[in-house]
């Protein structure tokens, strides 16, 4: 497998999911203090309730703050939802979209994800669009078909290397302690790179960062970051504390 890193700056992204009250901001402060000038980009996506406070905690240091979802509309009668413009107004510069937990629990389709991503990119947010197959789909050797369809339907035409990041997150690897083999991860990442280059041309296609997500921890980070076309990780559980996320960031810096 050919290793192709291009000029892409690596990205360590943390997804806190539905975890964290204001007490958790101490972890963010510790993370920012311990990484004053990181050799990689760091993104932390806390619950929406903490976005503004997280932005204040980071206080223009080396960590950017993102949301975990947004609505496709800018405003309106959508009780409980928040828009990309609202996230931006709160100081977020990125948003995770199409996470498998939202595709499952909120019945989000790839078309929904594309509409949200279009709105988020228009609002100036970097979109981290998540794709991934189920265990049954992998066992049926349908992984590349599933990823290809999700990639083509979820990613808007307005995407480029600055406003689009793709996270490959096999559903069966999320929070399970299981990870695909390096060859399996590499196969999907090489495939996504090819597809992006075919659609957007080699310049844009090569500049989009591809993250792996699913049970990333300090113990497996270095091996994962050595895989072809893996430009970083989207980390769930191990992003909640500076003690767990810090070593993953260090592994990415060393890769
Ligand atoms: O968004 C993050 C992923 O769902 C991975 O979660 P995890 O690191 O807890 O497996």
From TrEMBL:
UniProt KW Cytoplasm keyword: yes
Pathway(s) this gene product operates in, as recorded in its UniProt entry: Carbohydrate degradation; glycolysis; D-glyceraldehyde 3-phosphate from glycerone phosphate: step 1/1; Carbohydrate biosynthesis; gluconeogenesis; Carbohydrate metabolism; erythritol degradation
Enzyme class: isomerase
Source taxonomy: Bacteria, Pseudomonadati, Pseudomonadota, Alphaproteobacteria, Rhodobacterales
Keyword presence, Cytoplasm: yes
Record EC number: 5.3.1.1
Cross-referenced PANTHER family: TRIOSEPHOSPHATE ISOMERASE
GO biological process annotation, one example: gluconeogenesis
Residues noted as binding substrate in the record, renumbered to the chain: 15-17, 175, 215, 236-237
Record-linked InterPro entries: Aldolase_TIM, TIM_sf, TrioseP_Isoase_bac/euk, Triosephosphate_isomerase, Triosephosphate_isomerase_AS
CDD domains: TIM
Annotated compartments: Cytoplasm
Keywords on record: Cytoplasm, Gluconeogenesis, Glycolysis, Isomerase
Similarity-based family: Belongs to the triosephosphate isomerase family.
Name this protein carries in UniProt: Triosephosphate isomerase
One GO CC annotation: cytosol
Reaction equations catalysed: D-glyceraldehyde 3-phosphate = dihydroxyacetone phosphate; L-erythrulose 1-phosphate = D-erythrulose 4-phosphate
Quaternary assembly: Homodimer.
Catalytic-site annotation from UniProt: 99, 169
GO MF: triose-phosphate isomerase activity
């Amino acid at each position: 497998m050919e290793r192709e890193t291009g000029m892409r700056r690596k990205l360590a992204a943390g997804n806190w999911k539905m975890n964290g009250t204001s007490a958790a901001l101490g972890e963010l402060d510790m993370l920012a203090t311990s990484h004053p000038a990181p050799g990689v980009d760091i993104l932390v996506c806390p619950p929406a309730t903490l976005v503004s406070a997280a932005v204040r905690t980071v206080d223009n240091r080396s960590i950017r703050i993102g949301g975990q979802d947004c609505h496709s509309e800018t405003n309106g009668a959508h009780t409980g939802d928040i828009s990309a413009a609202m996230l931006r107004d709160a100081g977020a510069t990125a948003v995770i979209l199409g996470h498998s937990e939202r595709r499952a629990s909120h019945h989000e389709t790839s078309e929904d994800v594309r509409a949200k991503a279009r709105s988020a990119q228009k609002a100036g947010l970097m979109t981290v669009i998540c794709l991934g197959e189920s265990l049954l789909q992998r066992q049926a050797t349908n992984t590349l078909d599933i990823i290809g369809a999700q990639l083509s339907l979820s990613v808007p035409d307005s995407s480029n290397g600055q406003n689009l990041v793709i996270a490959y997150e096999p559903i069966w690897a999320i929070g399970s302690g299981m990870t695909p083999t390096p060859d399996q991860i590499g196969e999907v990442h090489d495939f996504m790179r090819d597809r992006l280059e075919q659609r957007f041309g080699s310049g844009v296609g090569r500049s989009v960062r591809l993250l792996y997500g699913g049970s990333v921890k300090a113990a497996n980070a270095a091996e994962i970051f050595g895989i072809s076309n893996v430009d970083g990780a989207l980390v769930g559980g191990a992003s909640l504390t500076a003690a767990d996320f810090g070593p993953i960031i260090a592994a990415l810096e060393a890769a």
